[in-house]
Each structure stands twice: as structure tokens, then as C-alpha cells.
Amino acid sequence: MKPLFSIAFTFLYATAFGAEKTQLSFAINDGNGALLPARVHLYDADEKPVNPRQSSLPFFKHHFVCDGAALVEVPVGKLRYEIERGPEWSAARASIVIAEGQTLPVTETLTRFVDLSHEGWWCGETHIHRPLNDVPLLMRAEDLHVGMVITWWNDNSPWKDAAVPATSATKFDGDRFLHPLGGEDERGGGALLYFGLKTPLPLAGIPGRTREWPSSAKWLDNARATSTAWIDAEKPFWWDFPIWLARGVDSIGIANNHLNRSGVYDGEAWGRARDLATFPSPHGNGFYSQTLYYRALNCGLRVPPSAGSASGVLPNPVGYNRLYVHCDGPLTWEKWLDGWRAGRVFVTNGPLLRLTANGKLPGATLRATPGPLEVRIEGRLDSRDRIAKVELVHNGRVESLQLPAHITIKDSGWFLVRAIADVPETFRFASTAPWYVELDRKPAPPNRTDAQFFLDWTRERAAQVEKAVADPEQRAEALRPVREAEEFWRKKIAAALGSLE
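User: That's the sequence. What structure does it adopt?
Assistant: C-alpha cells below.
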């Protein structure tokens, strides 16, 4: 047993002069001697994430980012780390053991195995909930070129008491763009994301506002009146999705935040639940989102896909779900939005799928008079994960595909290509935006079955709103866009001309 004075002396010495810290000293480089911003997942012996609270490193859930160098205080014993920098770079993984009072150097090199920006493909994501001041480093650590930051959400907005930024996007680091005025209107019918607005929508200050009144369509219409607005249907299984489609949205989130790096948020939250027999876990939510998107395309709606991670809310790194937009020449904010609107896009949370069809990028319309249309699909597919399958989706029908491919299309409509990674615990995939097909100068009529599907859905939504809104005047106002959507889908059914395919 130690003498009491020895224990006291040891305590006083440690307090006065500082005990030896147990630390990891990270140095992450690009192979040429330059430090490389990156993301680090660090776990202790019990597989619990290590939070470097003593540092200023941005941390969320299970990871932190750094500019390539970090000194992190850690627990004694066995540790495990994973270091990544987006899907175009190699990853580093290792287990180590550290003793008390030791400062252990960790040096890792990440190498770029593909450079999509040199091919004209520039990546971005639509759904960032991290502190605005942290976002530039977060984007650099993920090699992300465009970031839409959600700074206002329903009644919560930092811009109530601060000057609204004068520009839509801030350029930094040469070719990166940060949009600081993204917003989210989230309520009973689901969530819409808003970009490109010069001022946030006036969501606050409505006496008695509820989850169902006013309708989300009210703010969609207000934004649509602004020529700069971009409106994203954040997930296609939200209850108001057919109402939004009827009024017009600019993109649809199929690589959405229910798809996480290490799992799937299994379920549709307060959205329209999927049939578990048709879409079983764990991949069912991902396939369900895509199938709903295909139904919209089958109704003649030409809307590009989007991708977002909701880092800051759901357990994702920034840019885990991302979209690549093809732009000619140096990147600009305007070029990126124009390319996205034109559908020159693929979305991904892993595989990198860059394809052309008859030499045309996604979003193009391919024509043949008379039909059928012969199509050559070629390009590149790279991935850190093994690819389980590549599939052609034509007018909603799925079949296996071997790249490069030659296909014959006998019906007008659309097609796209998707690649599914062999990752059992989560749904990791890439999907091109659609190419559109017009044979004999005729686009495809709306698919009657899919239009009826959305009409039935809209009627279910009407019953929900009628029950949820007690005040008669508010109920009538909230139901108005739902009734207008019913008419929209009835017209689609009429335009189908009896088509049941």
C-alpha cells in the first residue's frame, strides 16, 4: 500500500504539470507528401465511436473530419480506425493497440483511383444539416464540389436575426460551391427541400399553423413563382408526393437519407409504408423509393433524380449519398444546376456509373422513325465494393445487363441503368438518370396503371387531411391542392388511352 503522502504528491504533480496523455497523431497524405483532408471513424475496444471532444475537429455520430493532420486523445487499449475520402479514393483500415501515456503516430496514404471531375462529372449533395462554418472542411474531406446546406427548417431560421447572404452560392477552394440558403419544409405530408431562393420562405408567423395546415403546396407555389427556385421532393414515399408531382418539382430523392453508410433506416417514417412482402428488408426501402420514381416516369413526368444524406440528423457523413452532374469546361454554379435540370446525372452512395447511350448522356431523348431503336450503352463503372449486379430498367421493367451492351427498344418511354453493390447490411447502388425514347415521333402515353396508383394514393391522402384538420375553412384550404391533384391524375388516366402496360 502506497503512503498517503505519495498518493497526494502524485495527484498534485499531475494537476500542476499535466499527466501524460494517450493520443493518436494522424497524418493522412495523398502519396505525394501533401496532407489530405479526410474522414476518420475511430472505435474503442467495445466498438464505441471515439469523440475527440478535446479538439475542434467536426464530429458527428461515429466520425470526425480533419485537414489531414489530427492529434486525438484516446482510451488505452485496442482501437480500430477507418479513413475515407468519398467514393473516388481508396480507404484505409487498421487495428492498433496503444499504451497509457503513449502518443502513437498513424500515417496513412489515400490514393485516387478515378478522377471524375477530369471526365466532366462533378459531385454534390442536397441535404446537409451541419454547422455552416464546418461545411467547407466537411466538403473538402469528402472531395465534394457542391453542397446544399439546410440552414432554415420550418419555423427555425438563423436568418431571422442575421443578414441573408447576398449570393446563392459561395465559391471556395478553387472549384467548390456552398449554397448557404437551403431550406426544408417538413410536415405531415413529408418534406420538400428548397434551393436557389434569395430569401427563406415565410414559414414562420402563421397563427395556429399545424402539420397539415397550410398545405405544403402553398409554399411550393410561392417558391415556384420565383424563377430561381429549385424544389426537391426529398423522398418519393412521403404522403404528399403525388400532390407535389401534380404541381411540379425539379428533382426526386431516390438516394435519400434512409440509406446510411452502415445500414438502412428501415421504414418510411410517417410516409406511405411499403409492402414488406414485395420490398423486404434490408434493401426494401431503397428499391421502394426507386419503384415510386419509375411510376412517376411512366406517367410522362421527366424529372431527374437527386441524392442527399441529412448528415447532422441521420447517421451519415456529408456526401455519402451524392449526385454527379456532367458539365463541359470549368465548373460553375449555374452550369451544375443546368446540367442537373437537363438530367445529365447519376446518383450514388458508392459505385461510379458513367454511361452514354448512342453517345448521349443521361437526360437525352433518343428517337427512331420508324422504330425499333437500336441502342449501344457503354462507359465506365468503378467501385470500392464488389458489384453484385448491373440492371437495365426500361419503362419500369428490370432485366440484367452486361456492360457494354446493345439493346433493342420497341416501345417509347424511358430507360436507365443501375448498379447494385454487394453490401448486405445496407443498400449501396448507383443509378443513371433516364434517357427518354420517342419512336415514330411519339412519346409514350401515361401508363394507366401507374396513374391510377397515384390517383388512389391522392384519395387516401384526402381522407387523412379531412380527418386531421378540424377548422372547416382551414380544411377546405388544405384540401384544395389535393383535389387539384386528383384532377391531374384523372387527366393522366384519360390520356393513357386504355394502355394497361
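Confidence is low (pLDDT under 50) at residues 1-18.
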